[in-house]
Amino acid sequence: MSLVTFGETALRFAPPDGQRFETAREATIRVDGTASGVAATAGRLGADARWLSKVPDTPLGRRVVAELHEFGLETDVVWADPGAGRQGLTFHEDADPPRAERLLQDRSNTAMATLTPGELPMGEIQNADVVFTSGATLSLSDTAADTTGALLRAAAGMRAFDLDFHPGLWDAEDAQDALADLLPAVDTLFAAEEQVSAVFDTTGSPREVVHTLATEYDLTRVILTRSEYGAVAYHDGVIHEQDAIETSAVDESGQHEAFIGATLQQLAAGADTDEALLHGVAAAALSRTLSGPLTPLEPSEVERLVDSQQSRRP
Amino acid sequence: MSLVTFGETALRFAPPDGQRFETAREATIRVDGTASGVAATAGRLGADARWLSKVPDTPLGRRVVAELHEFGLETDVVWADPGAGRQGLTFHEDADPPRAERLLQDRSNTAMATLTPGELPMGEIQNADVVFTSGATLSLSDTAADTTGALLRAAAGMRAFDLDFHPGLWDAEDAQDALADLLPAVDTLFAAEEQVSAVFDTTGSPREVVHTLATEYDLTRVILTRSEYGAVAYHDGVIHEQDAIETSAVDESGQHEAFIGATLQQLAAGADTDEALLHGVAAAALSRTLSGPLTPLEPSEVERLVDSQQSRRP
Amino acid sequence: MSLVTFGETALRFAPPDGQRFETAREATIRVDGTASGVAATAGRLGADARWLSKVPDTPLGRRVVAELHEFGLETDVVWADPGAGRQGLTFHEDADPPRAERLLQDRSNTAMATLTPGELPMGEIQNADVVFTSGATLSLSDTAADTTGALLRAAAGMRAFDLDFHPGLWDAEDAQDALADLLPAVDTLFAAEEQVSAVFDTTGSPREVVHTLATEYDLTRVILTRSEYGAVAYHDGVIHEQDAIETSAVDESGQHEAFIGATLQQLAAGADTDEALLHGVAAAALSRTLSGPLTPLEPSEVERLVDSQQSRRP
Amino acid sequence: MSLVTFGETALRFAPPDGQRFETAREATIRVDGTASGVAATAGRLGADARWLSKVPDTPLGRRVVAELHEFGLETDVVWADPGAGRQGLTFHEDADPPRAERLLQDRSNTAMATLTPGELPMGEIQNADVVFTSGATLSLSDTAADTTGALLRAAAGMRAFDLDFHPGLWDAEDAQDALADLLPAVDTLFAAEEQVSAVFDTTGSPREVVHTLATEYDLTRVILTRSEYGAVAYHDGVIHEQDAIETSAVDESGQHEAFIGATLQQLAAGADTDEALLHGVAAAALSRTLSGPLTPLEPSEVERLVDSQQSRRP
Amino acid sequence: MSLVTFGETALRFAPPDGQRFETAREATIRVDGTASGVAATAGRLGADARWLSKVPDTPLGRRVVAELHEFGLETDVVWADPGAGRQGLTFHEDADPPRAERLLQDRSNTAMATLTPGELPMGEIQNADVVFTSGATLSLSDTAADTTGALLRAAAGMRAFDLDFHPGLWDAEDAQDALADLLPAVDTLFAAEEQVSAVFDTTGSPREVVHTLATEYDLTRVILTRSEYGAVAYHDGVIHEQDAIETSAVDESGQHEAFIGATLQQLAAGADTDEALLHGVAAAALSRTLSGPLTPLEPSEVERLVDSQQSRRP
Amino acid sequence: MSLVTFGETALRFAPPDGQRFETAREATIRVDGTASGVAATAGRLGADARWLSKVPDTPLGRRVVAELHEFGLETDVVWADPGAGRQGLTFHEDADPPRAERLLQDRSNTAMATLTPGELPMGEIQNADVVFTSGATLSLSDTAADTTGALLRAAAGMRAFDLDFHPGLWDAEDAQDALADLLPAVDTLFAAEEQVSAVFDTTGSPREVVHTLATEYDLTRVILTRSEYGAVAYHDGVIHEQDAIETSAVDESGQHEAFIGATLQQLAAGADTDEALLHGVAAAALSRTLSGPLTPLEPSEVERLVDSQQSRRP
């Protein structure tokens, strides 16, 4: 099955564990983007996946693409003139409870914000079995939002979208407006539970939330991730629930992308919702045991974990 | 409010996690001192804090002062001639249970042991709202003990003291003698529970211990820290108790200084004992999630943690 | 007491925690061998221990011996011509659950596989109080298996053997054949529980397994390690059980060797089976708190942990 | 003597030696700013030095100030609201010939670009013996350029300025316009030789260039640094030349700031031009042997090097 | 232009600079192969390059391919069953004179040694403008040698070959025999000067050597690299010489591949021999300033260096 | 041949290259001692070498012995009670010219300073072909000086001594007094040229100095090392000179010990003075290409370098 994703991928700098930027001397450099992370996971698990984006032709922009290639992802990149847009950056301080993690978004005036539909290979998007993008792309600029809408509307296959709401990028009101325009072109919505409540006026249990969103925005599927609890999905009038799989070591970065990538790969390969969600939480659990947003998952270990979970069921 | 602390700050060498000096090839270098740690925390949380000490004018002595400045602490240092005293060193092997940590004290003949009252800016001490020092300073030499007594007696504000007893520096009997001389000049005593039992012949529960110590030494406040349990304080005839806040990642170094620094900052700013203790355990908890003895705490996150703890109370 | 062990020691490469070889840029280098690890632990805890092996005279072979010396082990090494055999290598990706660790064995055509009895100092083996080797040595080649048999038969003291079965080295059927030849020359058998079930057709509880093995192969002692549960031993008609000691930080590499080394050192020093097993689990627990297969244990801390465990008993 | 400098200080990320961002996994983090570097050097060599700036109140902004404090510099910082301006960043790939180094400027919309004169302590500037700033500050925004002019005009002491021209920040034409406005308020101009030719239409030898610039802009002093050759200065109708001091290890970052800092400290302390230039090249040479832009120079070693150079003269 | 290369790529482990395996604790991991390095350089400089090989489907084999992708190389890999062949390894200790570097080849029984022509996409090879492989591939096994011959004979474009002789892999006599069979299928021969003398009985100056080899083996082009001196080439009856470009920092690994990759890219793009050699030495010089065998060269900097060299000519 | 050396070995901490302790966060840990370094080199090159010393039974003392064992040295250590003496420490900042290196000696009250002759195995010393110690041991205490004298007088073989004068340990006058007592028991004196002039009132050329010292102190051999120039020796009325061998990478630590170790090994193995000196400078040159004081030299590479030097001679 073919999956095409598009969106910005930031370069993420992070100090060593237990340190802060205030006194750190070194930072690790990793790429961090919803669209590329989803494509990378789906591709590693068997999809014919490809990531589309606009990236500045600078050492930082090339850094983004090099790491994606290293993890095996195929890319189709519009190289922007160095003066025509920055590389988006994030500065991330991970933290163990009760300390809260911190994420400094430094993504103004990026190359991706200038992307127009004409710059992308529309044929690929039209022919893909699944097209995926996310809310962070919407937030970059009006141009980016328009492009996102045009691309989703052009897609003939499944049109999946992750809410991907970050307060450091825009505020909830702007997000609501943009989503009101965009969601009619979406059929499958992913969202993290805490982001839903930050953007929408939904109340009630997760089961109620997915039902409400599906109804209100006329969506085929709504899949809510609940970081420590698993996932809840609405599809075709039915609510599906999937517990998370406990992990002893936890690097949460990338788990959301791993979940979506595995779920989409399964859905497009013909799995039913329960099977897809189980693969999603399995990929997310394995991702939490590996460092960084992009992780070198292998299909065999996802299957082994899925099997061991199924064998525990009554 | 103004806080002045004085005492020796050691340079701490530590092998990487899970290693020992016996086979380690590298060590991290961090400063580790009760007086400087207390001042640094109080200063970061809003106090006008300053650390006084005598330090050898060598690369190691300058290293101590540079790190304190990096963490934002103001210092008033007497620079000793390189030949007139060593820089105190500690060699620390951290350990997870059931393995015990090891601390090798290498602090003989330090510059601080030669400090006389005339070398310090007495005006600062006399005018400070709070003066703080600790037992390790007492142990360095008779000169250091005399100086400590002279300084505390000269102080007009709150006179706080941490027991800070380390068997590698002196024995319990000598400590008792020195404390008998010194405690009349102290009004607020901090002590870690296990150090109290190593030095004093106290028996009974923590609540009894703080009461006994306050009575015996005529102290205004006695505050006992109980590493996994929180703090117990005696003040004005009342016992106050504060649970610790659980943390998932634990670097215990510096938590005691964070507790005292936050507690003193609060007390001097007019907080009542319960409020001060709660800030103390919050600062200690956050400190445990950051590596090293000195940690870059921020007032806003201490307040956020204090608020979240208060909101859990019935 | 004198202990002589022989067998191959691999050089182990491992990527940083949370990473995989697929995308790692660095690896740590450590030695990893059952026979050398057992001797190193026993030696650190008081035995007069020595490791015998055949090692290629290359930078990698010398690396193996240098690390063993660093940890205080005496060695008696036959240096093989660089062209006459490789240095055995392993590539290890540690993992936290639910991800499984991976061990790539790269140990074909090693120098050790060419070892003949005449190359070793037979006097040392004949006179040792305890001789120890393990199943991995058997698997290397027919020559190595013959040599192992010859050496054990030559030994006059206790003849201890660890099952040490790795599917990457040979299969269960070959192992059974080789063991059928060898076990008559063994009196004390160590085995990890999961390896027993991979090699033998044993069924039943651990208590039954040790009894069955002792009876079937006419062994004086059978000691089964159960990684999270401790050890079960059969000796002289009696079953002995020992709980594991919980540890908060876990690097499992080397714990099996630490267990055997401490147990053998105790048995040879005259301890009874319960005492020996308790020392074994204490050494294993401490080993889990230190990184790498070889760990710088100290006798005093093993004793302290043994004492603290004994004081908890009713 | 008192020195006040103001200007932006960037946070510099750099991959390990011999690597590029395209494939690097880590970066070192160091501060890199002309104004702060000049003040830090002058301060270490004996001046009463202070750096003024506007910095965002974010982890990155606090990082800048923490490192400056670590190197002993006093600061007077206006903390900008996180939303009101970015922290300026640079991405630097060092290179050995014939490969050229690369510097990616990422300094749009910084907090410093919004600085107005009213935000700074004008008294400090008016009373300082020397005020120093540089061209990079001019380039940030019209506001920054206006502020720079206002501050220099307010200064009563020596008004020193470094050309500090970076093509990544603005172009030569804009720089000329801004300098035409500003240079009347300057009396001492520093410039690197290759930057002079990039900005001005000067021709001729370095001796002619300093004379031409001094005449054209009515400057008291013009000091040209010639990285591998030393410095040439015009003062009071006389040309002064100073050879560079050869170094075997070369990290060129920070050498320009070390030169200016030492030269200004000497001039303000009453040294004549030759003496000041000699201290400048000595500080620059020592700086090249230490890694990073900010270096922990010591006065005694600068003096020793100055002495050894003087003793070589005929 | 299209370039197809094939051959084994080893995984190279190296201790930190100035250390040896005997006492090192860590190693860097990099890929190191003539065929992949040539393709990677040519691809970065503009060729449509692709590397063909057989690689074990293990963490080590995947590591090889991931790094090649990271550097932007397209690959066409036959994945071998883990049990069907090892990943070739090298262990490299770099050294500065007068110490000699050491290279331990650990490449017996690799997956590549089992490659048969039928496993490769012959169409790609037949249609490529340039096909390249090297002597190390010949040495792996008779199968590999036969396959190499079959592939070169199938190629319709330029058939380039690098001598790539390593004493650790085979001896000169075997190499001569294999080359006698193979060279008739080659038209362009690359060789390092010291390897030529190790394999062939050539005497005389480099100019004579290239002429002799071209005549004896009926080659269109012979290009000899002389590490510190540059290159000497024979083509069409004419000898071409090109000086090396001096570099201040030297990591020699990968320079040979950079030279060949750039030279082939130029030749295939229509450059004459002198132009091609100049690009070759420029790429080699830049490669020496970057760490590791694979280096992220950029076309613009190769051109800039070529231009600066040309402008120096009389 | 058998060589016994005795003396203190310090634990050396050093910041990363290009950094200073003032702002460093990590330090490497290496052992650094004249007596152990000489024995280690001699042992690696073929001597039956052994190092005798008194070391505190602490993590730091054990660290010293572990590294010596790692490099293959046999030791005979008196373990001192932790309270009975410190482990000697040095803090070393390496530097490239024109910056001067800095060495902070922190070696007061060490365990070695309490060593008495009765604690050492006198038999080993009496029977050794060569006994070696150095001036730093003399400086530790009167006890150490007395012990040094007693041991040298007890030796029946060659009695070699290195001047090893460090101003941070004692002053020249004390050194002269101690040497006046000791040198009558010495027959072979090594000294670095700059240390000779710091201790003795010698004038004249190196050739004159060795002659003067030999005559004045009635020494069989005097060998002067001249770091960049090689060595000059007096023996039996003849002056021998040996040029140094140039190296491109330079870590000077340990080169002096490598020189003495190789020279002594050769002399004791029957080489003449010229041969011995040539091996000395070869070992020193190789040592400069490896990091740290102790270096893993191999006999074959010393021989190869000796041969290449001899083949250059007319």
Automatic annotation (TrEMBL), chains A, B, C, D, E, F:
InterPro entries: PfkB_Carbo_kinase (IPR050306), PfkB_dom (IPR011611), Ribokinase-like (IPR029056). Residues 3-297 form the Carbohydrate kinase PfkB domain. Pfam families: PfkB. Belongs to the carbohydrate kinase PfkB family. CDD domains: KdgK. The keyword Transferase applies. Residues 292-314 are annotated as: Disordered. This is 2-keto-3-deoxygluconate kinase. One of its GO terms (molecular function) is kinase activity. It comes from the Archaea. Keywords: Kinase, Transferase.
